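tool_log.txt
---
The assistant was asked to compare two proteins side by side. It first ran the structure predictor on the initial sequence, then on the second. Raw inputs and outputs are pasted verbatim so the downstream comparison step can read them without reformatting.
(1)
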Amino acid sequence: MNRWIDESSRVWMISPQLGRTIFYLCPLLSLLLLGTYFIDERIVAQLGREDSVVEWVTFICFLAGGIAAGLCARFFFRSKQRLYGVVFLMVCLMAIFIAGEEISWGQRIFGWQTPEALAELNRQGETNLHNTPFSPFEYAPHLASAYGMLAYALTRLIPFLRKFAGKVEFLIPPFFLASVFLVPCVWLFARATNIVQFTIFTSRYNEWGELYLSAGFLFFIVLVRRRLIQPAHPKSIPETQLSVALKSS
């Protein structure tokens, strides 16, 4: 495991020590917060309430990640990497949309009323789609966090994916971020399968999982942007570092 952490850290140009810190610290922090249930469950309830620091940091991470993805898309289009450009443009639009959904498009800031048709469907009576029945976004966090957690490991363990990974490396989060996505993935799975029952505590703890997902997303997109603007990356992207690492291991 440490070998994968160190390898992905070198490819994404951070120190192995920082990579290991990120990998091991994130689950530890989430477990410590989960442990506050046995001390005072109001701690998580306060942190995860509407318009809390956690919610606003989540909004900022998605918004900033969307903007960074847009900058990556512009780079790829200019360098004739059109497939990457389209993918990152879609990621940009989706992240900005999710950011808007996170704060109900500013409804509580500006104080407007929820449209009547939407108010009848929305579980919280707010201007957003993700709290409506059969929302297409209901399982999006589950899929996104599972992808972030498993993508790198699968490219190392499955020969076919290993050969393919070098061609799409800017879409594969590094392994040191896998544990950041592990937290929301495990928690959302536990909620979806009713292993964890609905309570005020578990409902508010969801906000912590969303924060991890947004932070992992932002960190990954910033890493992509950082690699693209390095001098080692001319406008036409040659065989990349991950490709070489996959072939040599």
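(2)
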Amino acid sequence: MTAIEVQLIERLKKLPPARIAEVVDFVEFLASREERAAAAERLTAGLARLDALKLPEVSEDEVEAEIQAARQERRSR
């Protein structure tokens, strides 16, 4: 265990339960922020790879046709 972990645990032991609950909430908030940041990085990298493919743009009509085809396929199962 690192020195900072030991310090945190010692300080947590001195807090009342209500404050410990606040600490837990804050730690969960920080963790979710990190998860969102990591997801944003993955999305950015994925979009960059997609952009690098230089694929032709897809029209709204083509998108709608794909959606309708997928729905029809699902219905026929």
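---
observation on (2): The chain has three helices and no strands. The chain has a mean pLDDT of 97.
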